[in-house]
Every structure is written in C-alpha cells, then in structure tokens.
Amino acid sequence: MSRKIYHLVAFLTIAALIVAACAQATPVATDAPSPTDTQALPPTQPPAQTEAPPTPTEAPPEPTPTEEIIGETYKIGFAPAITGPGASLGAPEHETGQMLAEQLNAQGGVVGPDGVRHPVEILIFDTETNPDVAVSVVRRMIEEENVQVVVAGTTTGISLAIVPIATEALVPYISMASSGAIVKDPDTGVVREWVFKTAQDNYASAQWQALYLTAQGYTQVCHLSENSGYGADTLAQAKRAFEPAGIQIVYEDSFERTGTEFPQVASVQTSGCQAVVVGAIPPASSNISIALRDALPDLPIVHGHGTCNQDHIDLMGAEVAEGMVSPCGKVMVSDTLPDDDPQKDVLVQYVTDYTAFTDKPVNTFGGHGWDALMLAVTAVASLPDGLDLEAQRAAVRDFLETGVKDWPGISGVYNLSPEDHFSLGFDSLTFVKVENGAWVFFPEDQW
Q1: Has residue 54 been placed in a domain?
Q2: Is residue 21 part of a domain?
Q3: Nearest alpha carbon to residue 305 among 180, 226, 199
Q4: Are residues 176 and 276 in the same domain?
Q5: Phi, psi (5° rounding) for residue 50?
Q6: CATH number of the domain that 322 lies in?
Q7: What is the 3-state secondary structure (H, E, C) of the chain?
Q8: Which residues contact 157 (CB under 8 A, 6 or more apart)?
Q9: What angle do CA 297, 298, 304 make, to 5 degrees?
Q10: pLDDT at 24
C-alpha cells in the first residue's frame, strides 16, 4: 500500500509541473504594438521622482579669488636743480620728489583703467643748474632709462635748454619754472606740443606788483633783474603789466646771479624812483636786497614770486628783510584760506606731509615739483595696459593736454588744453610780506 501511494504522489507532482510550464509559454495579447510594427515608439520619459534628492553634507567650495595682475613699472624722470645757483629752489623740489617716491612705493604704484597695477619709479637726477648737465641727464632718461615722461627744469634757462630735446624725442616734458616762453614760442605764439609747466608765470606776478605799487601811489620805479632767462622775463612782463597801470620804469639794469658787488645801486639812488622791483631768485635776490638796504634803507623793495622760500629771508637776515613784499603761491598761507577754497584740502595735506618728511617749512617751489610730479603720476595712471613705449609717451601727452580739468594742485587749479599747456593766472597767486623773519599773508585791505 505504501508503494502505491508513493507512485501516485509522484505522478501528480510531475503532472502539475507540466501544466505550469505550458502556462508560461503561452503569449498574452495586449494593446501595445509589437516590436515589428511600423508605428514609431513613444519617446521614453524619465522616471518619476519618488523622493527628494539627498541633502549634501558639505557646502560647495568657495570660488578662488582672482589674483591682482601686476604690469610693467612706469618710470618718471625727475631732474631738479639739487645743486648749483638754483639749489634754493631745486632742493625743496628734490625733497618733494623723494617724499612722493616713498608714498607711491608704499601704495604699490597706480592702478590703470583696466585694473592692472603698475609700480611707479621716480628716477632722480641733478641738473646742477647747468644747461649742459640738464641736457645730458634728460637724454639719459629718454634713451637709456626709457621713461614715460620727464619732469625737470627748476629755472627758466634750464627748462628752455630741455625743450628741444624732449620735442625731438617725442617725450612729454613738464617744467617747474615760470617763464611763459617754456610752453609757448614767444616769436610765433605757437604752443610747444610736448611741453607743459606748473609754476605761476611772471606776468601774473607783475600784475600783483602793479596792483600793489598803484595802491601805494608809486608811478616811477626802478627794475633790477638777475642776468638769466628768469630775470629777463621778469623785466619783459613788468613792462607789459606796469604801463597800463600808469607805472613808468625810470631805470632798469641786470646783475650777475653770483655777484656780490652791485654798482647798479648808485644809479638807483640817482634815478629818483619811488620803489625798486627786483626780479631774481635766492641767493641773488637776497644779495641785491642787502646792497639796496645798506645804501637806501627807506626805499621800498618789491620782489617777484621767485623768492617765496625761507632761504630768501635767512640769507638777508630778518632785520634786512623786514617789510619786504612779494606775490606768492597760496601754499605760503594755506591755513588762512577759507574752507571752500578748491585748493585747501590739497594744500593742507601737502603742508602736513612735507613738514613731517623734511622737518622744514613749505615753500612754493616744492609745490611746483609736487604739481609736476602728480600730473605725471595721474597721466601714467590713465594708460591702458599693453601699449609700447612710443604709444605710452603719446598717450601721456594727450592726457595732459585734454584730461586735466579743474585739477587742484599746490600752485593753482589747472585746466590744460591744446591752446594752453599751463593755464594758471592772476588768482593763482596771493600777496605776502616779511614780518619777524617769516612770510605772512598781506591782503589788499592792509596795503
């Protein structure tokens, strides 16, 4: 019996397996097309998102900051009269250049319009107040040092000697001297294309002298000038300004800048002039004043703006200098200017910086140097990166001529143009006198 049951169970198991296999092999009809149909299959859709994507466990890395691009070093050739007869003017210019070089180095130069930073190097040379030396050092700046711009010429004579060198080389040149002939040919009236200047000119100074002489009631004056380009221009501009004011120059003469004997004083004494106007810079201005005071202690002496430094007073001595008057730049009296004066902030900062750097009082000549150098710095800062040297020099010239508008400096507010490479006038000067061995503001209502 057991054997029969075993065989029956085995038979039934095998039969069940056969039925199941047949069921899997039979195809089931659906509405979906078969792979052999010519109808195109619908596009495959992405699977539905069944749950939120996992939250990242860390924030994405911060982007790396762009590194500052450092371009080529711009070079400004700077040549004041550190030694020689013009050193009383050139020394403060030199000190100002040293100060600005330190400041530029500390701030890393200038950043151009395209964001590239350029170091700025001020290369300092000494003209020795000698035109031959000046020409030599300017040629070196241009041909060997490859400067973008030249700042040089403490005095008129030195500046005029540099003019043809810069013009021939097509290099922008900024002078620190006063004569209008530096920037405009006196014979043709043509503006010198590559030449600019910062010092107030002798005509503005002569206008102030005429105003003061008229206020004192003087109509007959003597004019003594040093035998130099500056001295000759002071006489020319005095004649231009005095005649319309009704002031006659009854005696004129020149003297050597290095002279110590002045026979001209005897002629002044016999001329009958009511005051003497002196066109000279220290030490010549001081020496001629001593001679005049010795012979004519009561004769008023009026100087030009070439004397606006402490050396002029110290070389004479406070007693001799007492009461002498002169037109000068506003830097001499910056603390008395109204707060809305457009130059005041620049003047006060310069006075603070210069006195801290040198432990000396300011004077207008250092200011002429500051203006010239900072105009040069502003110009090179306008250069786009990638220009060759020739294009850089041309672009600096173009910027100086067209890009300097309402620019407050130490000597005045500059508005340069193709017709005017200087732009300062009568209002860039004020009037001062010597009291107790120092320059003090001397306004018109006290004349």
Answers
A1: no
A2: no
A3: 199
A4: no
A5: -95, -15
A6: 3.40.50.2300
A7: CHHHHHHHHHHHHHHHHHHHHHHHHCCCCCCCCCCCCCCCCCCCCCCCCCCCCCCCCCCCCCCCCCCCCECCCEEEEEECCCCCCCHHHHHHHHHHHHHHHHHHHHCCCEECCCCCEECEEEEECCCCCCHHHHHHHHHHHHHCCCCCEEEECCCHHHHHHHHHHHHHHCCCEEECCCCHHHCECCCCCCECCCEEECCCCHHHHHHHHHHHHHHHCCCEEEEEEECCHHHHHHHHHHHHHHHHHCCEEEEEEEECCCCCCCCHHHHHHHHCCCEEEEECCCCHHHHHHHHHHHHCCCCCEEECHHHCCHHHHHHHCHHHHCCCEEEEEHHHHHHHCCCCCCCHHHHHHHHHHHHHHHCCCCCHHHHHHHHHHHHHHHHHHCCCCCCCHHHHHHHHHHHHHHCCCCEECCCCEECCECCECCCCCHHHEEEEEEECCEEEECCHHHC
A8: 131, 228, 229, 230
A9: 90
A10: 43
**Are residues 166 and 80 located together in one domain of the fold?**
yes
Residues 179 and 229: beta-carbon distance below 8 Å? yes
- Quote the CA–CA distance of 89 and 155 in Å, as a whole number: 8
Residues 185, 230, single domain; the answer is no
Host domain of residue 109: 74-201+339-425
Cβ(276)–Cβ(222) under 8 Å? Answer: yes
| CA atoms within a 13 Å half-sphere pointing along the CA-CB vector of 388 | 1
Co-location of 302 and 361 in the same domain? no
CA 211 to chain centroid, in Å, comes to 32
Residue 197 shares a structural domain with residue 82 = yes
Classify residue 311 as left (phi > 0), alpha (psi -120 to 50) or beta.
Answer: alpha
Q: What is the pLDDT of residue 1?
A: 40
User: Based on the domain organization, do 349 and 293 belong to the same domain?
Assistant: no
In angstroms, rounded to a whole number, what is the distance separating the alpha carbons of residues 147 and 194?
14
Indicate whether 235 and 269 sit together in one domain.
yes
Mean pLDDT by 10 residues, the chain (447 residues): 41 41 39 36 39 49 69 98 96 98 97 96 98 98 98 97 98 96 95 98 96 98 95 96 98 93 96 97 96 96 94 94 96 89 96 97 95 98 97 98 98 98 95 94 93
pLDDT of residue 194: 98
**404 contacts 396 by C-beta, under 8 angstroms:** no
Cα angle 152, 380, 391 (rounded to 5 degrees) comes to 95
Looking at the structure of the chain, the number of domains it has is 2
Answer whether residue 40 is part of any domain. Answer: no
Q: Answer yes or no: is 9 within a domain.
A: no
Query: Are residue 232 and residue 376 in the same domain, yes or no?
Result: no
Model-level pTM? Answer: 0.81
